[in-house]
Design goal:
This protein is of the alpha/beta class. The protein is built from 15 helices and twelve strands. The protein has an eight-stranded mixed sheet. Strands 1-2-6-5 form a four-stranded mixed sheet. The chain binds iron/sulfur cluster.
Amino acid sequence: MRLGEVRVRSGRGKMEGGSVTIVLDERRRGTKFVELPVKSIINSPESTRMDFWSLNPYVGCEFGCSYCYARYAHRYVVERARDNGRITERECADLGSPSGLEPFEHRIFIKEREAVLAALGRDLPRIRRRTMRDGPQSIIIGSATDPYQPAERQYQVTRAVLARLRGERGFRIGVITKSPLVTRDITLLRDLARRHWVSVYISLVSMDIRVIKLFEARSPMPHARLRALGQLVRGGVRAGLIVAPILPGITDTLQQIEALMRAARDAGAKFIAPIPLRLYPDVRRRFLPIVEQHFPRLARRYRAAYDRTWDAPEKYAAAVKRRFRRVAERYGIQDDAEQEQPATRAMNRAAQLNMFDGWPGNVARGKARC
Ligand code: SF4
């Protein structure tokens, strides 16, 4: 489907009852890919209150991680289209709440490639000017949704964006993904690194397959992500691990961190970027039942800790990052934040309240030896 567009067509040449949406594709397992026209593609630091520019080719993500904070954006896109009269109530119901399925995971909005490139043409001069004035600007691709999620294999919006950025120079570009599909673009990323400071953040929270299956319903397995990381590094691309989110009491134990850092070192990771869990209201609904079912002894603490905040407490965040840093150092891996990398800096904005004192790992109290 296509949102907010006057033309009416279907990816399969089928009219949809007078709707203004275009179905690009529909899979047997129920996922629909919907074309999304755009006027602007890069979010400015002023609009997001982050200290980087950000770009997300897709809204929604089939990987379906239970802790994903981008769910709200999907709902916003659908509701805004309905409120503006661009889609019917029936379409809104389909895009916003298909029965039994999470729309964020099964209704994927694809930003129209040509419109994205046109928008880039309008947005980039501003970033160029800012670079001239203030120094290298940071652009994060995949700050909200995975730019190499399954849709990218077919629609290649991320690839088109990277190719366009080859025409620029002097930016700091970060790409965040869980998907081995990123290796498809190694040559492109290496070319880009001749003109910009480029880093690829492979996202992995744990080597524990059970944890991955519980919290990241359809994401690639750890070994596939680490293999991709190794391929990137050997291909001449700066790549490392972003450990986001760290799940208190679940993935912050010394044993878990050791296993992850060992695997990262073996894959050739150039850095790690640990980021504690944020629990926004939309995420709680999806995430907390999993904790309740599989980690019942932690459930009450999670509910209490995130009752009045969505950020991890500052003290816990600082302590757990210290723990990661110490273990990483032992494995010869540098903390990305030490190089002042934008993705790490921004996503590390955590926590004001001190609610995690006394978590099972005792990280916040500094009792862990690592
Ligand atoms: S891979 Fe990233 S964008 Fe996709 S569901 Fe997981 S956290 Fe969200």
